[in-house]
Amino acid sequence: MREEFICKKAENCFANAKSYIYTMPEKIDDDFLEQLAQLGRLEVKRNFRRPFFLLETASGIRLKGMLKDNIIKAGFLPEEWEEQKAWTEKELKKILEKRRDK
Question: 6-97 architecture in CATH?
Fold first, then answer.
């Protein structure tokens, strides 16, 4: 059986916010970040008590999460959220497939 992520709409105080939470089948590590970095501009903040990452794509998708955790939060633009969500999920699946093939 192939493990994939679980996606849920995030509770958000902004009425039109298109935010989702992805629970990954494995924890975010440096290899995962390396592959995520291919999707956009990645910032990794390791000097915090709980190190985290921020990724922004050219189309405005924002992903963030804690290192060594399995949660990724995604924010999509209201006018393009369906396409952006589909693209993000396709890319996350590709990353998981590559990691499985190693």
Answer: 2-Layer Sandwich (3.30)
